[in-house]
Amino acid sequence: AYSIVSGDPMDQFTIRASSGEILTSRALDRETVNLYRLLVNATDNSQPRPLYSQTEVLLTILDYNDHVPLYSPEFYSIELNETYSGTYLVQLNCTDGDEINTENTQLSYRIVSGNASVFRVNSTGAVSLTAAGSLDYEQDTLHRLSVECSDAGNPRLSSNAVTLVTVLPINEHTPSFAQPVYNFTISESSAVGFIITTLSAADNDLGADGSIKYAIESGNNPLTFFLDSVTGALGLRRTLDRTQDSEFRLIVSAADGGGLIGRTIININISDVNNNDPVCNRQTFSFQTSENITARVEVGRLSCSDADTGVSGRLQYSITVGNTGGRFSIDASDGRLFVTGPVSRSVQAVYSLLVDVSDQGSPARSISVTVLVEVQAVNRFAPVFLGAPYTANVLENATIGTTVSQINASDADSEEFGRVSYSIVSGNGDNVFLIDRLSGAIVLATTLDYESN
After folding, report:
1. How far apart are CA 297 and CA 320, in angstroms?
2. What angle do CA 102, 163, 67 make, to 5 degrees?
3. If 0-12 CB within 10 Å is exposed, 13-18 middle and 19+ buried, where does residue 151 land?
4. CA dihedral in degrees (432, 438, 440, 445; nearest 10)?
5. Rounded to whole angstroms, how far apart are CA atoms 144 and 82?
6. Would the pLDDT of 151 be above 70?
7. Please, which residues have CB within 8 angstroms of residue 388's CB and are 6 or more apart in sequence?
């Protein structure tokens, strides 16, 4: 017969005297008691003095997710100028009354509504601007974010808090050109009045603060170029002579009505006729890259040249065909080829890219070359046993060479990295068993003696 001797002062459990089955007799609360040590007697029916034995039973009470994560407070409000240069905005406070250091109190946060492209929330509940996010009064004056705090229990419980971000207006936008430096090449035979380009600067402020006027601040000596203050059209004022001036460097300003000024550099090269195509040292380039790439990595460089001088001999590179998914990029100025993200040999073993190599003459001349990038396999996955754990019985009179068990494992890698070999690493001190390294079959290597082992 079985009986509980000690360890249950509140009579939370009963034991069936005949079977030894332990049952709960009252509701349990892990937050009050999470571990019981029961001392159990097993008594026989011998007479006149029954004999007994004792054992200790450890009962660990598992937590049940019965507390909803709660915010305190449930509403947050902040005001920021649209020129706010920081990232951190507000710290949300959420707690869970379940057992600490368990899935039931493992909290996570996510923005469930609002402008998630501007804001983010981290694992501790800190709300901040994303790396690409910014506040702009002209676009949005108020952001209303609903942030969910949830635990990892089963069932999953959650609650929401509201964060209001009010954007305050300020004249913060300086006129901005699309590029900090513009490079142009014109022929010395260009006619007076020829329009080289029409500059455009952007100012996102409203009203007079967004009205722009253009001017050449320096570099226009003698008066070679004109710039329309309203339209931004930059043109030729006089005839050119390359023997006197082969290049010009203009500083051009864009001023808004609020007094803010943006600037750009205009490099104008005066060129002869462009009469040489770019030349590469091969028509097809072959490079290799690994499929475990997680960041932008250089895989090779195209070696090309141009016999022309000045801008007519200055090359630029671009991928025109084969860059499916944008897996590759090329440095436009020096021909270095980069892989920009993960590639998989099992998806595509070789990428064939067509690269345009052009000079910056006027008109430009170009050629195309083929670039082959082979993706090399990487051993990313460990073998996985199928059907583990394994158990087997063998008779002590079994003959040497008897197959005791068949072990099977698979590997998700491809080619040689997916081939599995087997070995016994422990538990076979007397070398009783052998395993076939290729098939995984475990066989008897010596005779057995049940009385010895």
Report:
1. 20
2. 25
3. buried
4. -20
5. 16
6. yes
7. none
pLDDT score of 273 more than 70: no
Q: What is the DSSP letter of 174?
A: P
Residue range 12-40: mean pLDDT, rounded: 91
DSSP secondary structure letter of residue 284: E
- CA 97 to the chain's CA centroid: 33
| Tokens linked to 76 | 């947050």
Structure tokens at 412: 């998700």
Q: How many other C-beta atoms can be found within 10 angstroms of the C-beta atom of residue 39?
A: 14
Q: Which of 16-20, 67-71, 186-190, 239-243 is predicted with the least confidence, judged by mean pLDDT?
A: 239-243
DSSP conformation class of 210:
G
- What is the predicted pLDDT for the residue at 170? 80
CB 247 within 8 A of CB 199: no
- The residue length of the chain stands at 453
Helix, strand, or coil (residue 218): strand
Q: How far apart are CA 355 and CA 328, in angstroms?
A: 11
- Per residue in 409-443, pLDDT (tens digit) is 998 877 778 889 999 999 998 899 999 999 999 99
Give the whole-angstrom CA distance, residue 150 versus residue 72: 14
Single-letter code of the amino acid located at 222: P
Residue 355's nearest CA partner among 340, 373, 341, 342 is 373
- Tell which residue, 130, 161, 164, 165, has the closest CA to residue 148: 161
Strand order in the sheet with 181-187: 181-187, 261-271, 247-256, 212-218
Spatial distance between the Cα atoms of 122 and 15, rounded to a whole number of angstroms: 49
C-alpha to C-alpha distance for 169 and 191, rounded to whole angstroms: 47
- Radius of gyration of the CA atoms of the chain, in A: 38
Per-residue pLDDT at 243: 67
Indicate the pTM of the whole model. 0.36
CA–CA gap between residue 220 and residue 222 (Å, rounded): 6
CA nearest neighbour of 232 among 248, 205, 255: 255
Alpha-carbon distance of 225 to 120, in angstroms, equals 49
Note the pLDDT of residue 173. 87
Name the phi and psi angles at 351, rounded to 5. -100, 130
State residue 393 phi and psi, 5-degree precision: -115, 145
CB 304 within 8 A of CB 335: yes
d(CA 194, CA 327): 41
Q: Is 400 exposed, middle or buried (0-12, 13-18, 19+ CB in 10 A)?
A: exposed
